């Protein structure tokens, strides 16, 4: 059975005090509302990863980073390597988020190297794909997602691939309040699962966790998560509110 995951991507938000408070509130909410059979993942800014790992010793959630360097350790000012993340007990790391592709010019080559680095150190990549609005409107969305997946993760061996989580995040839905309909999400998730099946076989496809991201919130999560091929969510804005985040985690 593939895992169900709800991951919170805090992006570049929160001061240290606010991060501490939010983690505390999440811990409190989880005390009487622990989601069953769902893995909760929190991806705070890198500066607060240690704070989050401290909380995670007592609270039931895993930790993810939002980015990793494509380089190994060395003279790369400002970068954080996969080995460093692994030495901080990181479980996951987001790769290929549309904001990294757009604002930091991360190409498929760079993303594929980042995935490799993470896997070398036993960290599971949450690999994001998704089309822009004009690509949806011109019916190119399947082709775009197919090439992002082929170029980013289809060079992996079967055993490497088994550690990858995929997140479908239509760019037009991220931070816009304009969620994909459950039918649109299901259609793309089924398509992605099919691509995985063609490449790695039905069994692998069946085991692959595919998350939806893009304005997923406490109100619409249930309907999205009820779709056959939607195995949870990558949550941005709504993950900054403890109550909403835990409601989403309990929406299966
Ligand atoms: P959003 O962001 O939930 O705020 O739309 C999702 C994401 O970018 O991962």
- The chain-level mean pLDDT equals 97
Strand element count? 8
Low-pLDDT residue intervals, each spanning 5 or more residues: none
Enumerate the strands of the largest sheet in spatial order, edge to edge or round the barrel. Answer: 1-2-3-4-5-6-7-8
* Portion in helices: 40-55%
C-alpha geometry: globular
* CATH fold title: TIM Barrel
Which structural class matches the secondary elements? alpha/beta
* Backbone CA Rg: 17 Å
Distance between the termini: 15 Å
* Residues in β-strands, percent: 15-25%
CATH architecture: Alpha-Beta Barrel
DSSP helical segment count? 12
- Along the chain, the helix and strand elements come as EHEHEHEHHEHHHEHHEHEH
Biggest beta sheet attributes: 8 strands, parallel, barrel
Ions and ligands: 2-phosphoglycolic acid
Notable features of this structure?
252 residues; alpha/beta; TIM Barrel; eight-stranded parallel beta barrel; globular; binds 2-phosphoglycolic acid
Briefly characterize the structure.
With 252 residues, this protein is of the alpha/beta class. Helix content is 44%, strand content 15%. α1 packs across α12 and α7 packs across α9.
Topology (SSEs and partners):
Layout: E1 4-9, H1 16-32, E2 38-43, H2 49-56, E3 62-65, H3 82-87, E4 92-95, H4 98-103, H5 108-120, E5 124-129, H6 133-137, H7 141-153, H8 158-161, E6 165-168, H9 182-200, H10 202-207, E7 210-213, H11 221-225, E8 232-235, H12 242-249
Parallel strand pairs: 1-2, 1-8, 2-3, 3-4, 4-5, 5-6, 6-7, 7-8
Helix pairs in contact: 1-12, 5-7, 7-9
The structure holds 2-phosphoglycolic acid (PGA).
């Amino acid at each position: 059975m593939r895992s169900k995951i709800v991951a919170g991507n805090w992006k570049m938000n929160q001061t240290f005090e606010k991060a501490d408070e939010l983690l505390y509130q999440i811990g409190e909410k989880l005390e009487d509302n622990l989601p069953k059979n769902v893995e909760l993942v929190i991806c705070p800014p890198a500066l607060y990863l240690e704070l989050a790992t401290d909380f995670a010793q007592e609270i039931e959630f895993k930790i993810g980073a939002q980015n990793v360097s494509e380089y190994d350790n060395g003279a790369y000012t400002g970068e954080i390597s996969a080995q460093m993340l692994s030495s901080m007990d990181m479980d996951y790391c987001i790769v290929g988020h549309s904001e990294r592709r757009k604002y930091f010019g991360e190409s498929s080559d760079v993303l594929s190297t980042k995935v490799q680095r993470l896997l070398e150190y036993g960290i599971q990549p949450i690999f994001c794909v998704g089309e822009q609005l004009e690509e949806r409107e011109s019916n190119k969305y399947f082709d775009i997602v197919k090439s992002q997946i082929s170029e980013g993760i289809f060079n992996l061996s079967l055993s490497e691939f088994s550690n990858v989580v995929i997140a479908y995040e239509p760019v037009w839905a991220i931070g816009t309040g304009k969620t994909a309909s459950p039918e649109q999400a299901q259609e793309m998730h089924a398509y992605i699962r099919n691509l995985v099946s063609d490449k790695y076989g039905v069994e692998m496809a069946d085991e692959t966790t595919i998350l939806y991201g893009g304005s997923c919130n406490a109100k619409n999560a249930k309907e999205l998560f009820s779709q056959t091929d939607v195995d949870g969510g990558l949550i941005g804005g709504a993950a900054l509110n403890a109550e909403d985040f835990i409601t989403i985690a309990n929406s299966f």
